[in-house]
């Protein structure tokens, strides 16, 4: 079984994690295909930082949040103890905050005050959580919770590359770039014939853009927001994009802004300390996301189709500057050094979709990261392999199963517990102007 041929489509966050876990379990014939050289320029995980928050496993037998807690306990263990990931995690603490009543109610449910969480009720409470001279803005109406331990950020690109490098060292083959790594379609077994009268249809491999047919015993689809392109997911995935930008600091400024807690505001956006290599501060504006709607020529239904762009809508830049004016106005007028849109795929309930396809038994789905899948890079691949091997614990399998029935008549406008921006899912088709960083 360990010598079965396995193809992973996508060397992003989940594909890399899955490759690593397969290799660690002794699989010897694993190939990962990606449309881009590693690390992929469009992977949602190819980023300077991502937020991570730990949680312990559930000790309650009937805990309705059992699956989530189990996934979080696994990532916590990975960032604490796995030598591949531990060096890239920074336990700076994290503040979750908001200003609108709805968002405040939401974050209260998410991070309840407890032993390890300090309530922040006034702008001064926030300022005191930071080194002096950093939060000079008004922070009007901000309230939140400061988790001082067991939270922080991970250098995402470094962690992604570490997973890929270790998987390669253990024998996994990565093919990245267009055309040799770009998958254009899945290959299906020929329909039943006289010689194979009752063979059910199955996926037998993939075709790449150079025309090569890669056959495999198992195909694991981990193409992030682009997974929707390969298969009819019955509306279970909604490719949705968020927006991020960097501003450059001087070396002296970067030193002053070192070791900040992550500051997340559910209405306005978030940032953490600047990256050590380039002294760039990444800032995200928070909102329910953008979709790119097109009409499906066959069904006539609309669907959101991802596209890559290393620019952001001007309105997102303005929101990013708004967040800076509220928090660090001394940085609010700096030119943007970098920006991009970044795609992920939301499921109906924002639970992951990790399952064997109901019809194609050799196809494993590792998708639906729902805008919070990076933190799981140390461990998610282990759950994917468990599912492939048919031994994913029942209570987890139930939460992440193929659930087309839940997406019937899906409300594409559902904000899925997100706030900020225009407080609605936005449409790239309505965007008036884009930034032109590096184009002048
Ligand atoms: P990806 O990492 O995007 O990987 C998909 C891969 O598929 C890519 O490498 C791509 O090149 C490849 N691919 C695409 N098409 C093809 C093809 N035709 N052939 C071959 N390969 C292909 N999560 C957190 O936990 N914490 C955070 O703080 C956080 N912040 C975020 C901020 C933003 C702005 C965004 C957009 C997301 C954030 N997330 C965060 C979510 C997280 O980044 C994603 O959930 C996670 O990275 C998804 O991993 P993935 O492997 O599914 O997709
Ligand atoms: O606390 C978190 O896990 C934040 S994930 C960061 C983010 O930008 C979201 O804020 C956004 O809503 C979307 O899910 C993409 O990821």
UniProtKB/TrEMBL annotation:
Cofactor: FAD
Domain FAD dependent oxidoreductase: residue ranges: 6-386
Sorted UniProt keywords: FAD, Flavoprotein, Oxidoreductase
Gene3D superfamilies attached to this UniProt entry: D-Amino Acid Oxidase, subunit A, domain 2, FAD/NAD(P)-binding domain
Gene Ontology MF, one: flavin adenine dinucleotide binding
Top-level lineage group: Eukaryota
InterPro entries named in the record: FAD-dep_OxRdtase, FAD/NAD-bd_sf, MTOX
Pfam family, one: DAO
Stated name of the protein: FAD dependent oxidoreductase
Upper lineage: Eukaryota, Fungi, Dikarya, Ascomycota, Pezizomycotina
């Amino acid at each position: 079984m360990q010598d079965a041929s396995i193809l992973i489509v996508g060397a992003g966050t989940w594909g890399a994690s899955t490759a690593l876990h397969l290799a660690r379990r002794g699989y010897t014939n694993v190939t990962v295909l990606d449309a881009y050289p590693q690390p992929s320029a469009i992977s949602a995980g190819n980023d300077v930082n991502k937020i991570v928050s730990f949680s312990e496993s559930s000790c309650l037998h009937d805990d309705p949040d059992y699956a989530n807690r189990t996934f979080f306990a696994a990532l916590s263990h990975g960032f604490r103890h796995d030598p591949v990931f531990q060096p890239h995690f920074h336990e700076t603490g994290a503040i979750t905050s908001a200003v609108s009543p709805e968002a405040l109610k939401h974050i209260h449910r998410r991070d309840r005050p407890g032993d390890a969480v300090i309530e922040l009720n006034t702008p001064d409470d926030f300022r005191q959580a930071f080194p002096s001279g950093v939060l000079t803005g008004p922070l009007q109406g901000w309230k939140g919770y400061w988790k001082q331990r067991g939270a922080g950020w991970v250098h995402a690109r470094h962690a992604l590359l570490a997973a890929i490098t270790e998987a390669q060292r253990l024998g996994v083959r990565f093919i990245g770039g267009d055309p040799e790594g770009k998958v254009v379609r899945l290959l299906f077994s020929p329909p039943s014939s006289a010689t194979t009268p009752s063979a059910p249809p199955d996926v037998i491999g993939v075709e790449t853009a150079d025309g090569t047919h890669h056959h495999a015993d198992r195909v694991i689809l981990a193409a992030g927001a682009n997974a929707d392109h390969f298969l009819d997911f019955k509306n279970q995935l909604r490719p949705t994009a968020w927006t991020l930008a960097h501003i450059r600091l001087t070396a002296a400024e970067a030193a002053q802004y070192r070791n900040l807690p992550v500051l997340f505001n559910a209405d306005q956006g978030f940032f953490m300390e600047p990256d050590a290599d380039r002294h760039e501060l990444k800032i995200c504006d928070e909102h329910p996301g953008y979709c790119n709607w097109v009409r499906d020529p066959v069904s006539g239904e609309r669907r959101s189709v991802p596209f890559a762009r290393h620019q952001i809508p001007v309105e997102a830049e303005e929101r990013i500057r708004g967040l800076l004016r509220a928090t660090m106005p001394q940085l609010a007028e700096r030119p943007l050094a970098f920006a991009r849109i970044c795609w992920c795929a939301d499921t109906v309930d924002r639970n992951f979709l990790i399952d064997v396809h109901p019809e194609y038994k050799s196809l494993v789905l590792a998708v639906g990261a729902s805008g919070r899948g990076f933190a799981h890079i140390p461990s998610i691949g282990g759950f994917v392999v468990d599912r492939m091997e048919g031994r994913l614990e029942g209570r987890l399998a139930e939460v992440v199963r193929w659930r087309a029935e839940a997406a019937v008549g899906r409300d594409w406008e559902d904000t899925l517990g997100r706030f900020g921006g225009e407080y609605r899912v936005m449409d790239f088709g309505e965007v008036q102007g884009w930034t032109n960083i590096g184009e002048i």
